[in-house]
């Protein structure tokens, strides 16, 4: 569904938990590997391992846990093209935000407003064409337009928020600054029963030091 960006570390499916069988189950790995994710790997190597795992287990994003919003366009100049969306959000008073989503090389969806943004064809409304974001704009035009929007007093204080990292795009070196990543994945155990893995990856001194996961099973709610 367009306009709906869900964190990778949240539950993938709606399901009712199965009681008994010692669920949830928790495991911590500090030696060897799990699912092809190898303890001691660099963040960039772990990212490549996640790309392979994501293709096998049908998940497409990884969360960078604890990443804070950026305050100005130059902070994300080299990052925008590595993601599939950005959010611009007011940081004081009434919450106002715009979510700009990309499909391949152009903007395919824009939503704006408060708690439940609605679809718009351009943002900011009434801004000149050379400044406003439009559906169909090339991704390489996003950064110049960010610079222009942030020259407008009404938006100069907005924060820039990056979503979970899409595994289909190249590694973001900024991810290596963070000590935790997270993702979720599901597998069918039997008809109407799904197994859900909620996973955290921990890094220390530039290497993967720990894999923690919680596993639960549930009946899929149709």
Task: Give structural notes.
Strands 1, 2, 5, 13, 14, 15 and 16 form a 7-stranded antiparallel beta sheet that branches. The protein has 2 helices and 16 strands. The chain has 222 residues and is mainly beta. Helix content is 10%, strand content 38%.
3D shape: globular
Q: What fraction of the residues are assigned to beta strands by DSSP? A: 35-45%
How many beta strands in the DSSP annotation? Answer: 16
Contiguous helical run count: 2
- What oligomeric arrangement do these chains adopt? single chain
- Which regions are unreliable across 5 or more consecutive residues at pLDDT < 50? 3-15
Mean pLDDT: 90
N to C succession of SSEs: EEEEHEEEEEEEHEEEEE
Sheet with the most strands?
7 strands, antiparallel
Distance between the termini: 17 Å
* C-alpha-based Rg, rounded: 19 Å
Q: What would you call the structural class? A: mainly beta
Helix content: 10-25%
Outline:
With 222 residues, the chain is mainly beta. The chain has helices at residues 43-57, 142-149; strands spanning 15-17, 25-29, 33-34, 37-38, 61-64, 85-89, 97-103, 106-113, 118-120, 122-123, 133-134, 159-161, 165-166, 180-190, 193-204, 207-220.
């Amino acid at each position: 569904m367009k306009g709906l960006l869900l964190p990778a570390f949240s539950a993938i499916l709606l399901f009712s938990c199965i009681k008994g069988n010692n669920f949830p189950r928790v495991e911590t790995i500090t030696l060897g590997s799990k699912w092809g994710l190898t303890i001691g790997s660099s963040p960039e190597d772990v990212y490549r391992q996640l790309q392979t795992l994501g293709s096998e287990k049908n998940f497409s994003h990884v969360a960078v846990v604890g990443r804070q919003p950026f305050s100005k366009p130059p902070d994300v100049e080299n990052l925008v093209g590595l993601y599939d969306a950005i959010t611009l959000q007011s940081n004081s008073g009434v919450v106002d935000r715009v979510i700009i989503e990309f499909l391949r090389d152009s903007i395919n969806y824009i939503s704006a407003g408060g708690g439940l943004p609605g679809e718009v064809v351009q943002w900011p409304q009434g801004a000149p064409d050379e400044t406003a974001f439009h559906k169909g704009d090339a991704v390489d035009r996003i950064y110049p337009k960010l610079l222009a929007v942030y020259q407008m007093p009404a938006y100069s204080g907005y924060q820039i928020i990056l979503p979970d990292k899409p595994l289909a795009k190249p590694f973001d070196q900024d991810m290596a600054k963070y000590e935790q990543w997270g993702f979720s994945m599901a597998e069918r155990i039997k008809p109407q029963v799904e197994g859900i893995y909620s996973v955290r990856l921990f890094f220390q001194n530039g290497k993967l030091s720990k894999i923690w996961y919680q596993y639960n099973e549930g009946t899929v709610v149709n």
